[in-house]
Amino acid sequence: MFLRIFWVLAFFSFFSSAWATSWTSTSTQNLDRLWQRVLQAEESKLPKTALKILEKILDKTKNEDELRGHYLKALCWKALNQAHIQGKKPLDKLNILRQQIDSLPKNQLAIARAIVAIWYWHYYQQNTWKFNKRSQTSGLENEDISTWDSPKLFRKVAALFNEAVKDKKHLQGLKTEDYVPVIQKGSLDWTYCESLYEFVLRQKISFHKFGISSLAKPSDAFEVDTRSPAFGNLDKFLEFRPETTDKQSQLFQLIESYQQLLNYLKELNKKDVLVATEVERLQAMNQHGLGSDRTEILMERYQELAEIYAETTESTLALHQLAMLYREKDELVEAMKICNRAINSYGVSDGAQLCRNLQNQIMQSEYEIQIEHSVNSSNSELFVNYRNVKKLYFRVYKENWSKILDLKYSNLGDYLNDKQIRQILRKEPVAEWSQSLEPTADYKPRDQIIKLPKLERGFYR
Q1: What is the pLDDT of residues 330-345, one digit of tens each?
Q2: What does the pLDDT read at residue 21?
Q3: HEC assignment per residue over 270-297
Q4: Nearest alpha carbon to residue 366 among 392, 343, 345, 387
Q5: 139: left (phi over 0), alpha (psi -120 to 50) or beta
Q6: Are 34 and 53 in contact (CB under 8 A)?
Q7: φ/ψ (deg, to 5) at 353
Q8: Please, are residues 255 and 281 in contact by the beta-carbon 8 Å criterion?
Q9: d(CA 46, CA 39)
């Protein structure tokens, strides 16, 4: 939903020219030409040439705060090209970049640590099978990632993210947009992820969500249920101080990360972003928490959120989640009412659009017809299961059974392909009628029996 580090999607591969960005100022126009030369060198498989040009970019941007994004981007590409020369090993890229970040200035160190964390994470995603085959290790003294097991790698990534957000006051003063082109703007405005502190925390949250479903749980695994403040309203959640012996739990760290982010947004009074993040938090608790009454608890939370922050456009996201839960309970009329409430409040908001999509799903026309293969006077009827359909139109066509039996690879079942259907429809039907159906005002499936017209003995479609 928010912004992302743009090179993460490269998965340790080299960048292509399609990733190049254009800038308009004189200084960045010069950089643009240098970046084009880097791309050309990489496309020609000339990493040493690319490195020479990258050194020029690093030299031009090293002491320029407004070009810090270019400096970090060049540093990453330098690591990629150096690794290319050494043999294209993903581990080389990680080790080279990791060694380079310690000498970075304070305003670049946090995002650089987040980059290394994400590179470790992506290395794991590409090599999960290797990690799963390794026996468990302990400690982080050994820096050779090729010997690590899964828990050890996740501890390392979490430690890097924790280091990245450690100096929160400094990070909160750094604007995310100042790190273009390292950070690529998503579909939302910069205000939705204004500071570097928010950006790194959101990357950390994504990582912990991934970790919950990726790691085996220990015997003392940290868990939360609906009685926990983890399912409480915003104030109770922020006051929550979970006690556990499983300090490395991804769920435990996810809750801590959400608390950090929500506290920050609450202090800034960024209500729209706060509501969107709170909806996201409740979804995460629903997915990873326990309790048979989760649906009822979450419905209460979303209702509270929509009422307390009714003046914000993002309150429609809470209404959409509330409508989704009503649909899960098969209370479709109530789900439609809540969707209308969101649409009428802020018709152009994301939540309103999601509600329109949900309404379209609820109002979708569906029907299924069942009939006996052999029909006579005692069972001359068909069975219809339908919803959101007002009328059905029927045609009956007579077929020659003997000719069908003579056809090579003939299909004696009910299935007809498009060609067969078109051939039948060109004939004159022996019977044709329409049938009005009882309305489904509750949007739920309904059954109806329809009488067939009298037909002569024969084979019909």
Answers
A1: 999 999 999 999 999 9
A2: 38
A3: CHHHHHHHHHHHHHHHHHHCECCCHHHH
A4: 387
A5: left
A6: yes
A7: -65, -40
A8: no
A9: 10
- Per residue in 254-299, pLDDT tens? 999 999 999 999 999 999 999 999 999 999 999 999 999 999 999 9
Contact call for residues 20 and 39 (beta carbons, < 8 A)? yes
Assess contact for 395 and 452: CB atoms under 8 A: no
Tokens matching residue 203: 């990357």
Within 8 A by CB and 6+ apart from 132, the residues are 150
Residue 407 three-state SS: coil
Evaluate the CA torsion angle 36, 41, 45, 47 in order and state its sign. Answer: negative
Whole-number Å distance between alpha carbons of 14 and 114: 19
Return d(Cα 117, Cα 137) in angstroms, integer. Answer: 20
Least reliable range by pLDDT among 182-191, 198-207, 280-289, 333-342: 182-191
* Cα→Cα distances 288→135, 225, 263, 283, Å: 27, 9, 22, 9
> And the tokens for 276?
């969107």
Considering the entire predicted model, what is its pTM?
0.83
